[in-house]
Write a structure and sequence with these properties.
Helices cover 30% and strands 30% of the residues. By secondary structure, the protein is α+β, with helices and mostly antiparallel strands. β5 and β6 form a beta hairpin. It is globular, with a radius of gyration of 18 Å. The two termini are 30 Å apart.
């Protein structure tokens, strides 16, 4: 199992300390990219649609599935296994390890064309991850969901090896439980006043919970400037950002884990 870790910063006021800024700078220097994320408070989600001039009919439909144990042992070890079905194009799979320190990753992983090392930064927190991605047919993902195909056969050989190197001992891919689906609407915007690509994802959980996240990617050297500009733009529209860096993935995993527990 991996021992490489880095701290995830959390500040209730949505700000990070000077020490954490230094750590963030170190991580971004070794990353391929930075994704700046902001989750909107539920009370401001409806206003966001009009403020950003977002047309729901242009959104791409996605289904997101996670695979873990019912008590989320895989997630606690820092590993995420996900598959997606995507409207109008091929789906994909990912085996993600987080947190990581870019400079401490093995060369075989750091130099792989399938791996992206990215820092996710949000109000009050940040985390660096290594994601090994692959394309997958939507039909194949559906077969796994319906128990007609084994999960390990959906993943590539490289992904299976990556999983085995970091998953808890004795935990096999085909022994993981299905957690999902999450129904997702994704919309890409380029607001004139911001001048850069902004991605909106609305995650709809089965209990009616709505998680609206806005994100933009940039080069590591641009991270702080882009973060400041993007935050100022969103707040200038009257959009209230959630101060707790609680990711979409964590929210979804916790929901489905509780659902499995309730089912016995």
């Amino acid at each position: 199992m991996a021992t490489t870790t880095t701290r995830r910063a959390r500040k209730p006021a949505g700000r990070i300390s000077g020490e954490d800024v230094t750590r963030l700078l170190e991580l971004t220097r070794g990353a391929d990219s930075v994704e700046l994320k902001a989750t909107l408070q539920p009370s401001t989600q409806r206003h966001a649609t009009s403020a950003l001039d977002a047309d729901a009919l242009e959104a791409q439909i996605r289904q997101v599935f996670f695979f873990d144990t019912p008590d989320l042992a895989l997630n606690r070890s820092g590993v995420v296994v996900r598959a997606r079905r995507i409207q109008g194009r091929r789906g994909d799979t990912v085996v993600k390890l987080r947190p990581v320190v870019p400079d401490e990753l093995p060369d075989s992983i750091r130099n792989s064309d399938s791996v992206t090392v990215e820092v996710d930064a949000m109000p009050g927190g940040f985390v660096c991850s290594a994601s090994m991605k692959a394309k997958a047919r939507n039909e194949d993902v559906r077969e796994v969901v319906h128990g007609e195909r084994q999960l390990r056969k959906l993943l590539t050989k490289e992904q299976r090896k990556f999983f085995a190197a970091h998953a808890p001992e004795g935990l096999e891919l085909d022994g993981l439980a299905l957690l999902g689906p999450v129904f997702v609407l994704k919309l890409v915007l380029t607001p004139k006043d911001l001048g850069r690509r902004l991605v909106g994802e609305l995650w709809l959980l089965p209990d009616g919970t709505r998680i609206l996240e806005l994100s933009t990617k940039c080069e590591p050297a641009q991270a702080f400037q882009v973060a400041a500009e993007t935050r100022a733009y969103l707040e200038g529209l009257g959009l209230e950002l959630a101060p707790d860096p609680h990711t979409k993935t964590k929210s979804a995993l916790e929901f489905f884990s509780a659902e499995l527990a309730a089912a016995g």
